[in-house]
């Protein structure tokens, strides 16, 4: 266990593959800067890999004060054990108070291993992080400046706030897209600290024989226009209307959890607290009631159009434009109008 260190830095694990930083890591840098400013401490980032030192400057531009850079041929491609060794050694040496990882496949693999080794707490799939106070109901001890780790629980039906007041560092994985990605300031200055790690034979127990990468089927985070369907679409056949509207608008297809659970479309299209968080220029919600879990994943869209037969549906509370009626009649009319105009 790392003893609680109120002056410890706020850290981000800088995830990179093929010498490219993940957007999630850069999103976390902005959040780390916010948390660190609240605590009056510095922001650190752990950057491990081979020939990736130049990426340090992007991290610094996005708010990092100190980049702990580990350069080793054994880190060229991600493997759990060597990367876990890096994080554990760095945490033991520098004693940060907070460590954040992206809730990506890589981050979800690495963070639990590090938490287990460090005997620290870990909250997975957070949708928000804040600094706050906690009073232990048993001892009445007051803990200031703790990390409030906020995430959906019980299938997204409640929002839980989780704290870790005694087994530090406080660690969390954070959902992709829930933190805003800033533009970065190339004029910012910071320090790059080159670190050396001694690996052992156990760290090399898994060898990489072949490497295959499969591209994403849908890029909801990068889409400027999204047409999303909900349970109100009614069936998988009816969902073709959502695909068709997205096609004429040149947008991506999204969905609410209700539509995914009903088998109308695959989970990779899911938007909300238990899916992807998006901020497109235009979001068209078709047959989506607007439960809080879905709204949390799309309410920061620049323009929202909602189509629903229920005039009291919560989605109208966040929509800029609302259309009350049968989507089976409204969507074909929209498609026809768009085609005629184009």
Instruction: Provide the spatial order of strands within the biggest beta sheet.
Output: 7-11-6-1-4-5-12
CATH class of the largest domain, named: Alpha Beta
User: Which regions are unreliable across 5 or more consecutive residues at pLDDT < 50?
Assistant: none
CATH superfamily of the largest domain: HUPs
Sheet with the most strands, sense and barrel status: 7 strands, parallel
Rough outline:
globular
Annotated CATH architecture of the largest domain: 3-Layer(aba) Sandwich
Number of individual domains: 2
Strand share of the residues? 25-35%
Topology as a string of helices (H) and strands (E): EEEHEHEHEHEEEEEEEHEHEHEEH
Structural class, from helix and strand content?
alpha/beta
- The number of helical elements comes to 8
Distance between the termini: 63 Å
Describe this structure in words.
This protein is an alpha/beta fold and 342 residues long. It has 2 domains: 10-204, Rossmann fold (3-Layer(aba) Sandwich), CATH 3.40.50; 225-341, Rossmann fold (3-Layer(aba) Sandwich), CATH 3.40.50.1220. Helix content is 25%, strand content 26%. The chain has 8 helices and 17 strands. The strands form 4 sheets. It has a 7-stranded parallel β-sheet with strand order 7-11-6-1-4-5-12, sandwiched between helices. A 5-stranded parallel β-sheet has the order 14-13-15-16-17. Helix 3 (80-94) packs across helix 4 (105-118). It is globular. The termini are far apart. The model has no long low-confidence stretch (mean pLDDT 92).
């Amino acid at each position: 266990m790392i003893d609680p260190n109120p002056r410890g830095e706020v850290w981000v694990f800088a995830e990179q593959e093929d010498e490219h930083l993940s957007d999630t890591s850069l999103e976390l840098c902005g959040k780390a800067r916010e948390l660190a400013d609240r605590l009056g401490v510095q922001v650190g980032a752990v950057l491990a890999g081979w020939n990736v030192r130049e990426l340090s400057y992007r991290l610094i531009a996005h708010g990092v004060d100190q980049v702990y850079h580990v350069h080793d041929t054994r880190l060229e491609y991600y493997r759990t054990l060597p990367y876990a060794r890096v994080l554990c050694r760095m945490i033991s040496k520098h004693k940060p108070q907070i460590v954040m990882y992206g809730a990506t496949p890589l981050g979800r693999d690495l963070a639990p291993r590090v938490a287990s080794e460090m005997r620290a707490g870990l909250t997975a799939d957070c949708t928000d992080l804040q600094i706050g106070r906690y009073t232990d109901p048993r001892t009445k001890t007051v803990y200031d400046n703790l990390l409030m780790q906020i995430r959906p629980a019980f299938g997204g039906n409640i929002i839980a706030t989780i704290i870790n007041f005694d087994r530090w560092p406080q660690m969390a994985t954070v959902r992709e897209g829930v933190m805003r990605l800033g533009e970065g300031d190339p004029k910012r200055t910071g320090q790059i600290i080159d670190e050396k790690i001694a690996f052992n034979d156990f760290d090399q127990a898994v060898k990489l024989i072949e490497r295959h990468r499969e591209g994403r089927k849908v890029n909801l985070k990068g889409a400027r226009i999204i047409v999303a369907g909900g349970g109100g679409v009614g069936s998988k056949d009816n969902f073709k209307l959502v695909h068709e509207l997205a096609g004429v608008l040149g947008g991506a297809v999204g969905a609410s959890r209700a539509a995914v659970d009903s088998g109308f479309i695959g989970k990779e299209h899911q938007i909300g607290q238990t899916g992807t968080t998006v901020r497109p220029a235009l979001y068209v919600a078709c047959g989506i009631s607007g439960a809080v879990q879905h709204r949390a994943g799309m309410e920061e869209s620049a323009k929202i159009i909602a189509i629903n037969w229920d005039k009291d549906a919560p989605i109208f509370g966040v929509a800029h434009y609302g259309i009350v009626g049968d989507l089976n009649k409204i969507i074909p009319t929209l498609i026809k109008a768009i085609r005629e105009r184009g």
